[in-house]
Design goal:
There is one protein chain. The chain is globular, with a radius of gyration of 17 Å. The model has no long low-confidence stretch (mean pLDDT 96). It has a four-stranded antiparallel sheet, sandwiched between helices. The protein has seven helices and four strands, in the order ααβαβααβαβα. The protein has 177 residues and is an alpha+beta fold. Helix 2 runs antiparallel to helix 5. 29% of the residues are buried. Bound molecules: flavin mononucleotide. Flavin mononucleotide (FMN) binds next to strand 3.
Length: 177
Amino acid sequence: MDILDTIKRRTSCRCYQETAVPDDVLERCLEAARWAPSACNQQPWRFIVVKERGLRERICSEGFLPGLPMPWAKQAPVIIVLCSKKSLVTHFLAPLFSGINYHLLDLGIAGEHLVLEAQAQGLGSCWIGWIQPKKLSKMLKLPFDLTPVALITLGYPQAITPPGKRLAMNEIVIGKF
Ligand SMILES: Cc1cc2nc3c(=O)[nH]c(=O)nc-3n(C[C@H](O)[C@H](O)[C@H](O)COP(=O)(O)O)c2cc1C
């Protein structure tokens, strides 16, 4: 499968079937994330795979910020909690010079690797950033050096969501020298 084709077919899925995601499919998604590049190869990503219904429901009822209801998230048979593990180099030292949050870049890349492999495996996915990291940390009893930065729902889609609008190429390529 052409990678650009997979990229273009991925859209945020907000309507899931109840069908469980097989472990080998899930493993492939996590394997894709594992191979992501990262600043200074610090690999600051850590993943919590939540399949248990009770915990998924708690995450969705207590772990989201108010104002953006996401009732569909509870339907997803898998929620991945994408956590950042603190690294002295890329959390503290390097940003002192550049002002760039490398760990967030790294987690974004790893998460999108996961999502694209999910797409290639016929799964739907949706990033969820409207979360309450502190509440999630407490709920999941995370150690002090791990911070949840996003969730990704996974499951077989009920329907294919059409792609959202994208800026035109000439709006995003703002310089060519
Ligand atoms: C970092 C990030 C956070 C997001 N947070 C949410 C969210 O909290 N709730 C939601 O429904 N969608 C969320 N999305 C999905 C975006 O709304 C979606 O990617 C965007 O509208 C483009 O649509 P598409 O994914 O279907 O191409 C998030 C996406 C990203 C990358």
